[in-house]
Design brief:
The complex is a heterodimer of chains A (369) and B (295). Chain A is of the alpha+beta class and 369 residues long. Chain A has two domains: 222 residues, P-loop containing nucleotide triphosphate hydrolases (Rossmann fold); 121 residues, Nucleic acid-binding proteins (OB fold (Dihydrolipoamide Acetyltransferase, E2P), Beta Barrel), CATH 2.40.50.140. Chain A has nine helices and 21 strands. In chain A, the strands form five sheets. A six-stranded mixed sheet of chain A has the order 6-7-8-3-9-10, with helices on both faces. A five-stranded antiparallel sheet of chain A has the order 13-12-11-14-21. Chain A has a four-stranded antiparallel sheet with strand order 2-1-4-5, covered by helices on one side. In chain A, a hairpin with a 2-residue loop joins strand 9 and strand 10. In chain A, helix 2 packs parallel to helix 4 and helix 3 crosses helix 4. Chain B has two domains: 52 residues, no CATH class; 210 residues, MetI-like (MetI-like fold, Orthogonal Bundle), CATH 1.10.3720. The two termini of chain B are 29 Å apart. The chains are: A alpha+beta (369), B mainly alpha (295). Chains A and B meet through strand 6 and helix 2 of A and helix 8 and helix 9 of B.
Amino acid sequence: MANVRLENVWKRFGANEVIRGIDLEIDAGEFVVMVGPSGCGKSTVLNLIAGLETLSDGDIHIGARKVNDVAPKDRDIAMVFQSYALYPTKTVRENILFGMITRGASRAEQDVALASVTELLHIDMLLDRKPGQLSGGQRQRVAMGRALVRNPDVFLFDEPLSNLDAKLRLEMRTEIKKLHHRLGKTVIYVTHDQIEAMTLASRIAVLEGGEIRQFAAPEVIYEEPEDLFVAGFMGSPSMNIVKGRVVRNGRLELEVTDAEGAVRFPIPDPLAGPAGRHLGGELFIGLRPETITRQGTQRPGTNVFAFERAIDVVEPTGPDTMLVFSLGGIEAIGRVHPEDKAPADTLFPFEVNMDRAKLFDPASGKRLR
Amino acid sequence: MSEAQGIVRPKTAASTALRWLLFAILGLFALYYLMPLIVMVMTALKPLDEIRTGSLISPPRNPTLEPTVRAWNSACVGVRCSGLKPYMLNSILMVVPAVLISTMLGAINGYALTKWRFRGADLIFGLMLFGAFIPFQVVLLPMARTLGALGLAGSLWGLVLVHTVYGLAFTTLFFRNFFVGVSDGIVQAAKVDGAGFFGIFFRVVAPMALPAFVVTVIWQFTQIWNDFLFGIAFSAGDNNPATVALNNLVASSTGVKEYNVDMAAAIIAAVPTLLVYVFAGKYFIRGLAAGALKG
């Protein structure tokens, strides 16, 4: 087990700044997920930690060791690649043992390691097959086996599940979480799938434009996003973010106007102070779809605000039904119980939990608090 | 192709007639293409008096292997009357090392150019590619001087060197195009697994490149075996490869022209490349197709 520390890490390709001064402290045994849209630099950070790319600036420490100039094979890491990167001409056994053979491990060591890994991943009956004869899920397991057999201090995962179908992805996700629980090793995991990030991570680093926007526990990322980007990126369907004007109408309200008229969201007390400084100006309000339901269905005592809007589209997902309505020029989504739904083009009585509403400064994008 | 496959077409008398016309034209082209080979084989099997009296395309009445045997071990090439045999050996001694060395170097080049990217890799590849388009006449004189300076003038090893150098452009191109299609992740995984430049090449990447090796070996074998220009320019007398010897054999008949021996010698000189195609041809097509998709 080892902690991983990145200090002011920069990566430039010519004039192109891919990573712009990242600081990250990952504790030993932690499961950190780096998430962000494609091109945000998350895979580059992983390659930098692995030593597959050279640093332009800054330091990387693994454990007590500064590894800036240490070759990948000497960093005590193991990596699982997005494309699995299995050696196609080698059998599963040879794939898993390639690293040990390269390092000159004895036959006995190889046998012990192979047995424990194949048993753990249930791939004992595949040992003599070539990767081309395996299904996607089996290849994924072999790729993990190749990493596990290394018994490293740090595991690096580069979008390991993105090539699997939906059902397998769920299964493997659970399996990876179990493995981490069992082995207790430090894991750094890159994905563009924010649900994967939420379910797996002990802490999430949200990256955008080569910078870390927020690094915190999943619940914190979800409920207390630092800025508009994090708020919009995390959550599916994503947060409804709409612009409104701060007005005083006995109490502080955020007035969202469009062709269907105005909706005046009361600003909850804890936010009244910072919102008051924007009186007469504009703010973004962020409402998660699950906080918008049918009137009278939220837990009693919740600070709800009721409003009516015409439904544009009804999208049943099974457990919940998404009602799409227009609000301040965006397609807003409310998430209601299937039995609460109404047909499209009818006026629907919504209520929203204002305690979970977020306000954002349009100029800086930061959340008010 | 069975009728159950492919795009549905209306079946009319006109379309059937067109189809037959198409086959007839294709058959004609095939015959035209095969004609020289047919004439060669038939002539090589005829005794000399039958050639004099019969027509070019009449089949042999009394087929005989005597001209073939003579072409192999007793026909005169210049003043030396030992047939093509010693020159075939020369060709083999030249082709085998030249093919192996140029293929191996091309594979390492292609691997380095795609999987160990360095500054200027694209420029270097561009320059190497340019080498594939240099007309060989241009390099004859400078190469002759170089071989002279190296003390390899007129020797088989000189020819091996020339063919290796001028084959590199093509072999590098073939392997580069193959390795471009190989996932970088595999090389990265091997690096994390602790393998170095040559470890990754020999143990991971080269086994994957079997189709590229087959294509390159066939290509190089055919090119080098069939080469005449370098052979005649850079080898002397007893060191001539088969192609040059064939030319000398045909040119040095005295008195009566022995067409049957000439034809048999030409067939003998062509047999190795034919054999390579027969045994590895399907890999060649497959490899070319793969290269075209990936390149």
